[in-house]
Amino acid sequence: MSGKYLVTGGAGYVGSVVAQHLIEAGHEVTVLDNLSTGFREGVPAGATFIEGDIRDAGKWLDSSYDAVLHFAAFSQVGESVVKPEKYWDNNVGGTMALLAAMREAGVRKLVFSSTAATYGEPEQTPIVESAPTRPTSPYGASKLAVDHMITGEAAAHGLGAVSLRYFNVAGAYGAQGERHDPESHLIPLVLQVAQGRREAISVFGDDYPTPDGTCVRDYIHVADLAEAHLLAVEAATAGEHLICNLGNGNGFSVREVIETVRQVTGHPIPEVMAPRRGGDPAVLVASAATARERLGWNPSRADLAGIVADAWAFAQNKER
Ligand SMILES: NC(=O)c1ccc[n+]([C@@H]2O[C@H](COP(=O)([O-])OP(=O)(O)OC[C@H]3O[C@@H](n4cnc5c(N)ncnc54)[C@H](O)[C@@H]3O)[C@@H](O)[C@H]2O)c1
Ligand SMILES: O=c1ccn([C@@H]2O[C@H](COP(=O)(O)OP(=O)(O)O[C@H]3O[C@H](CO)[C@H](O)[C@H](O)[C@H]3O)[C@@H](O)[C@H]2O)c(=O)[nH]1
Predict the structure, then answer these.
(1) Which atom of ligand 1 is nearest to the CA of 116?
(2) Are 239 and 155 in contact (CB under 8 A)?
(3) Distance, CA of 49 to CA of 226 (rounded, Å)
(4) Any idea where the NAD-dependent epimerase/dehydratase domain is (predicted)?
(5) Nearest-CA neighbor of 147 among 189, 184, 194, 110?
(6) Ligand 2, from 146, 189, 197, 254: best to mutate by most atoms within 8 Å of Cβ?
(7) Atom 1 (ligand 1) nearest CA
(8) Run of H or E including 20
């Protein structure tokens, strides 16, 4: 059945890919984005675009919407350490206003972009949703606060909600890909080296307790992630707040990622050693068993070389 959805942050990386998937599945999509970190041209053709802030969502939301998919947020871990107030204001304050607008308008379903950063340094790998949540950055803390807020909203007011805790999102979907400015994520930065836009990639620490000393992450293709959102909208049940990790369950070190980029691009990719980056856990790998069981999610693009190849194709196109 087709639905009508508000996608906040749909001019950004993940939101634009999910909006594109919703449109391809025959749904009606409105993107609400203030373009603070997103790009107007990222909004998929076929979506209605509103340039506005989530704090003003009440101006546009009404009961004709079946659900809100909420991506709008600031998401730089490092920046959040030096400007925590910016993260509480936008991520927590903005979402409070959005939830109030949804309540007022009678919109009954929410899918929220949560993050592996809510867990902090894990005690056990792979990470399950019942693991302790001890975020190591204000970014992670702001997302955890929103998760708690949503739990209360579901219990008290009957919202049907799913929080998806993404691990490391990567890759591209046709014309939609990653373009943060400034870029801080590993794969697009290494691809900039391959393009000659950067001289070398800095490796942030090689003294972690991992096989090659560099941090290990679980990279998930943005199109697999998008499919989980469509399933989550279907699974959202009144009065329940479901939390699901999204990852492939495979960890790759920073050095393995760089080596994969060498293989995919044929570029030598010089590395320079740099100190550890504050707030980085050594290993973050997901158990996505809940998403598989509760959403029926079945990711099909786990191969790291394939993920990098899609990101590379997008980066090359963007520079043309
Ligand atoms: N990219 C990742 O690896 C990753 C991992 C875990 C979680 N997440 C979460 O997923 C979501 C999307 O991340 P992304 O990488 O696409 O980021 P992004 O910066 O590309 O997209 C965020 C979008 O939200 C918009 N926005 C921000 N504040 C807004 C506001 N107050 N009102 C309206 N629009 C606003 C921005 O303009 C931007 O278009 C975020 O919530 C992020 O925390 C991302
Ligand atoms: O120039 C760089 C950039 C990154 N890294 C390393 O590469 C790994 C991956 O870093 P990213 O910045 O690409 O991703 P993060 O793991 O820091 O962050 C991602 O996962 C987090 C959960 O911990 C949040 O959800 C966040 O939004 C999401 O981007 C980290 O060990 C980082 O230290 C480098 O060595 N050099």
Answers:
(1) 6
(2) yes
(3) 19
(4) 6-244
(5) 110
(6) 254
(7) 169
(8) helix 13-24
DSSP state of 144: H
Burial of 233 (0-12, 13-18, 19+ CB in 10 A): buried
Q: What residue type is 226 in one-letter code?
A: A
| Helix 138-157 / helix 94-105 crossing angle, nearest 10 deg | 20
Confidence of residue 1 (pLDDT cuts 50, 70, 90): confident
Tell me whether residue 38 is exposed, middle or buried, using C-beta atoms within 10 angstroms of its C-beta: 0 to 12, 13 to 18, 19 or more.
Answer: buried
Side chain identity, residue 124? Q
DSSP reduced 3-state for 111: strand
pTM above 0.95, yes or no: yes
pLDDT tens, position by position, 119-166: 999 999 999 999 999 999 999 999 999 999 999 999 999 999 999 999
Please name the residue that has the structure tokens 């972009």.
113
CA–centroid distance, residue 186 to ligand 2 (Å) = 6
At which residue do the structure tokens 């606060």 appear?
145
Alpha-carbon distance values, 235 to 28, 68, 106, 252 (Å): 19, 14, 18, 31
**Which amino acid belongs to residue 207?**
D
Q: What are phi and psi of 102, to 5 degrees?
A: -65, -40
